[in-house]
Amino acid sequence: MNSLDQSIKASFSSSGMSVLNLARPDDWHVHVRDGALLETVLPHTARQFGRAIIMPNLNPPVTTTAQAASYRQRILAARPAQGPGVAFEPLMTLYLTDNMSPDEVRRACESGFVHGVKLYPAGTTTNSNAGVTDLRHCVVTLEAMQQNSLPLLIHGEVTDPSIDVFDREEVFIDQVLEPLRRDFPALKVVFEHITTRSAVEYVRDADAEPGMLGATITAHHLLLNRNAILVGGIRPHYYCLPVFKRETHRLALVEAAISGHPRFFLGTDSAPHPQSLKENPCGCAGCYTAPHALELYAQAFDKAGALRRLEGFASFYGSDFYGLPRSTDTVTLERTSWVLPEDVDADSLGVVVFKPGKDLSWKLR
Ligand code: NCD
Ligand code: ZN
């Protein structure tokens, strides 16, 4: 039995039920917000994942290690008091601006709790106005990150208004990512929430040492293509950034996720917004997948006949990339058809949970 086969711990009973035990997964890209919303959404992530890379795009953004320290305390305080989730560990990130100093990078590295710096090109997405206007402003900071092996986590879209929104990721690869990686060959880079065949091929085929380049893939981009947003009516809860692409791109993402290639790992990009800001003439981008994220990934892997590849993608490759120990805890998924209950739909804060449009076939025990 090879190591992949050994990691399959699925047992099938005669009734067709199946059980899948995995090392507890981690979420390498999530938005947990702040204040009352943090208290509502954090337990969903903590119940499933051992650790998560916390996005810093609060308003105002988390730009210093000191701010990350206090945000981390608020997250720890929002963990469930008992059950799965009590030991959830937030892995903090800083928000790169034109003025972040190399000293901040050193403070971040010394802290032990900051694990990356996030690049939002200014104007790309939610709370990105304070983001980077031109990477040339960040040269000394990127050098410090490179020296200290602090990863750069990239929202990979250009903002040039003349570039079609469906092409912004592909143009980013040529105009920004490739030059950046050439100029900083020893910088650890994560291409976040990739959505195109070009991004898959770029990451898969890049000439990079192990642990230098990775990409996160969301569950919603594995499950849906752009028709979901527009066919039969406009569906704001399927609108996120980078926006869903054509089916051929979704298929490329599925191939990457199930490939067993360690450069591809799980990042939900769960991004809750109040219902009133989603169902709005100018609705916010973001899919709120956290409450059943793992079940959504299991659905996508099962549909591709590749459940045996889920554990590497969800539980191993991300921690390997970040140089953190693999989880020793486990979770169990059971095969069972279930409809998301209506009362999960909108909680007291009016945050609508992402539904994939059909029943789910896996449930976290
Ligand atoms: C994210 C958010 O709302 O913070 N939205 C999204 O559509 N993914 C920001 C981001 O990751 O782009
Ligand atoms: Zn995000």
3D architecture notes:
With 365 residues, the protein is an alpha/beta fold. It has one domain: Metal-dependent hydrolases (TIM Barrel), CATH 3.20.20.140. The radius of gyration is 19 Å and the shape is globular. It has 13 helices and 12 strands. α4 (102-111) runs parallel beside α5 (139-148) and α7 runs parallel beside α10 (247-257).
Topology:
Blueprint: H1 3-6, E1 11-12, E2 18-23, E3 27-30, H2 35-48, E4 51-54, H3 65-77, E5 89-95, H4 102-111, E6 114-119, H5 139-148, E7 152-154, H6 168-183, E8 189-191, H7 197-205, E9 213-217, H8 219-223, H9 227-230, H10 247-257, E10 264-266, H11 275-278, H12 293-303, H13 310-322, E11 330-338, E12 360-364
Parallel strand pairs: 3-4, 4-5, 5-6, 6-7, 7-8, 8-9, 9-10
Antiparallel strand pairs: 1-2, 2-11, 11-12
The protein binds N-carbamoyl-L-aspartate and zinc ion.
Strand order of the largest sheet: 3-4-5-6-7-8-9-10
Largest sheet, described in full?
A: 8 strands, parallel
**Helix-strand pattern:** HEEEHEHEHEHEHEHEHHHEHHHEE
Could you tell me the number of beta strands?
12
What structural class results from the helix and strand content? alpha/beta
Principal-axis shape? globular
What is the H level of CATH, i.e. the homologous superfamily?
Answer: Metal-dependent hydrolases
Q: What hetero molecules are in the model?
A: N-carbamoyl-L-aspartate, zinc ion
> What is the strand content?
15-25%
| Overall residue-averaged pLDDT value | 93
Please give the CATH architecture.
Alpha-Beta Barrel
Give the class-level CATH name: Alpha Beta
Q: What percent of residues adopt helix (DSSP H or I)?
A: 25-40%
Radius of gyration: 19 Å
Supply the number of helical segments. Answer: 13
